[in-house]
Amino acid sequence: MERYCRKCGAKLKEEARFCPNCGEKDIASNESFLNKYKLPLIIAAIIAIILISFVVLTPQTQIVKVDNVEFEIPANYVNEPSRTDVNYDGNVKSSAMGWSNDKTYIEIGVTRTPGSGINSQEVAANVGGSPTKMLGYSGYYQKYDNESYSFVFGLKDKVCMVYVSDYDAFNDIKVVNED
Question: Which long-range contacts (CB under 8 A, 24 or more apart) does 6-11 make?
């Protein structure tokens, strides 16, 4: 690429730092905008790609509340209209909600005894199943004939049951607040 002095227009040698005709020393200003800002543009493009990838690839979630326990599930699950709230003589309260996406159904139930307290681990054990640890808690896992699964575990004075139509859905569920 031929270079010319920006002041007098004289042809410059490739390695020249000064114009041999007029002595102009700022001859590098002939560089194109792209050459001058190539490195900052590349860095900005890499940062933009990383940020866009983070937003696109980061799983989007939603917080759902059953009774007074909050769970995190994927954002693509839609709340099913049916909700069950049961109150037995003011001592035992139970609440259950369901969500689904195109492939999977999740139902979460919470049972508690306000005031009197229960041994939630003992109640979970009486439900049956194989002792295991899931969702960060010790509890009882069951597989049903219709290829669905449940996990029952105790939380303070509550018993939680998570039912899923696909075993892999357990990986998408987290207990975030057990208030």
Answer: 6/30
